[in-house]
Amino acid sequence: xxxxxxxxxxxxxxxxxxxxxxxxxxxxxxxxxxxxxxxxxxxxxxxxxxxxxxxxxxxxxxxxxxxxxxxxxxxxxxxxxxxxxxxxxxxxxxxxxxxxxxxxxxxxxxxxxxxxxxxxxxxxxxxxxxxxxxxxxxxxxxxxxxxxxxxxxxxxxxxxxxxxxxxxxxxxxxxxxxxxxxxxxxxxxxxxxxxxxxxxxxxxxxxxxxxxxxxxxxxxxxxxxxxxxxxxxxxxxxxxxxxxxxxxxxxxxxxxxxxxxxxxxxxxxxxxxxxxxxxxxxxxxxxxxxxxxxxxxxxxxxxxxxxxxxxxxxxxxxxxxxxxxxxxxxxxxxxxxxxxxxxxxxxxxxxxxxxxxxxxxxxxxxxxxxxxxxxxxxxxxxxxxxxxxxxxxxxxxxxxxxxxxxxxxxxxxxxxxxxxxxxxxxxxxxxxxxxxxxxxxxxxxxxxxxxxxxxxxxxxxxxxxxxxxxxxxxxxxxxxxxxxxxxxxxxxxxxxxxxxxxxxxxxxxxxxxxxxxxxxxxxxxxxxxxxxxxxxxxxxxxxxxxxxxxxxxxxxxxxxxxxxxxxxxxxxxxxxxxxxxxxxxxxxxxxxxxxxxxxxxxxxxxxxxxxxxxxxxxxxxxxxxxxxxxxxxxxxxxxxxxxxxxxxxxxxxxxxxxxxxxxxxxxxxxxxxxxxxxxxxxxxxxxxxxxxxxxxxxxxxxxxxxxxxxxxxxxxxxxxxxxxxxxxxxxxxxxxxxxxxxxxxxxxxxxxxxxxxxxxxxxxxxxxxxxxxxxxxxxxxxxxxxxxxxxxxxxxxxxxxxxxxxxxxxxxxxxxxxx
Length: 819
Prior knowledge:
α4 packs antiparallel against α7 (217-275). It is built from 26 helices and 32 strands. It is of the alpha/beta class.
């Protein structure tokens, strides 16, 4: 043990003489620390190291943070407290402060495949810069292009081009008119634009139908033939005119593209030069082609026309949406690797979604600007921390998490877990991510996933297992003072003096269940600090002392121990039968622990045994009534093994016995009462009475050794409280396993009762030592003296012989066989 911790176990030199029961003194029970004099108050203490005493877990974290290979994600178990994720984040932030800052991720419109938005990776801050420059580009085109189209140079080129094609059209018309004249027709155009061919005969146009009818059949046929030929020629001319119009429109478009490109090229070159990103360069080339092919979007919009009532409005379309930039990861303000804590690890928060909205016309629509990233993508190049206990219960989270960690890519999709059809209409380009995932969960969840999910150990190759306790050495005891000092400074609480810290250390040791260890949970200590500070302020004290910590603990007990007091009252008034004086055969007081809503207390329970001749063995009444747990059943089988090992080597055990926890209706679990049951059984077997003022706890093995049990402090205090309520006689006490001496951190009133000789604690190593205390008779007899074990062996032999005689032919209890 560390030199600054007072030893609580008796050395061999202090063992009692043979024949006298060993008893612990008040000095053995007192808990002491050695921090007095190291500080006056916790104002002097600060800067407690995170995760002090967790060298094993920290080594695992250091390894995982330093290895960049696939699957080196971290499963953290054993961390407690509401702020455990934030505490873990702070520790990681200190270790990776010099890491490189990752870049930005943006989604842009895919002009070739509009349903598959493209993802672009850029340097930190360049995502926002690209968005701003594209907004400036659109704004410039909208403002400057209409002006360019109104410039004199543009109008001059356009007019020149129009005159050119008008002249060509007029030439075609003139050629057609000449041809018509040569064919004997005049071309006339009606007011409605219809073209008529009027035949000319002998220099005179035939305007009237009767003039045409007056011609001979041969002339009429000739005119009709020539008219058909002329109509065909007119169609050819019309097609050629249309071609001229298309050529003119194409040439006008070329002029517009040329004017637009003069304006667009320097804007795009500025973006390319500033960002210097190959993916951005490819995107800007697509922007250039799209803008030049859709110049009408940048021309002056026509005046808004008012729709008639009850008439549907025309569908709206944002012509500039394609040029927008959707920033899904923005690291402009990030220094080093991002470390994100996701307190609500739902699917949407972790992996994002593609939002869908209903527009003003009732349509469900979406576009690439509706892609929303989750914390997994935002943590790209860094670390993501969340609780796996919370995440694994969320729909689809575990499946998508595994898929993402295996592939190293995030595929953005619409999350609609309750929809029959959840097609989003978009399939964005998957994003390659390098995120180290750190999950916090219970040890049970870790082992469950390791056993049942074959992919789990490949994805989480490192486990950081935090120990709930740490050694009670000088460094860790002072860490309690540093924790308290930090908390008092942060929350404005009154500081603690050394006695208050010592009482907190004692509380931590009791919670750890070991005098040589203390609780490593800062959260549990912080709660007690706040409550003790409350009582100090109530007394208007500047410093919190041990008295205030004790008051806080007493207040906790008072708030939670109603059922404990009710049980003590039932024992005191005789409703629950427990004897604490005298001696009785086959009856002993066992000790159990009840845990109700986070409050544990001990209570004595009468254990009784009955023994008869037979071959049924030991009957566990709790098991037969289905009130016994598997560990308790194991303890009963070990007890039977002890009897066979001790008394059944030379003759069979002819015994039929039953053991019972009297007035127990809620079930029995654990083997801590196996020694108690053995004492009751041996007492009934030998008819030697046992002291009722001594309660017993401890499990037993097949060799008769008494083994350590849990809840020893609560058990001792529970029996002491019952004796105190009914009346202390000065002879009462408890028998505990000697292995539990190091776990004794008792209340002050119990230690005071031991110091005054009003209560006794007897540690034992074997069942024989316990029997000597309970009976006052040695287990090893001398000349002319029968020991307890001798009496048990004799009685078991008598029962075996008696059973044999009883079963012999001719005996009153046996049936003679007939030949």
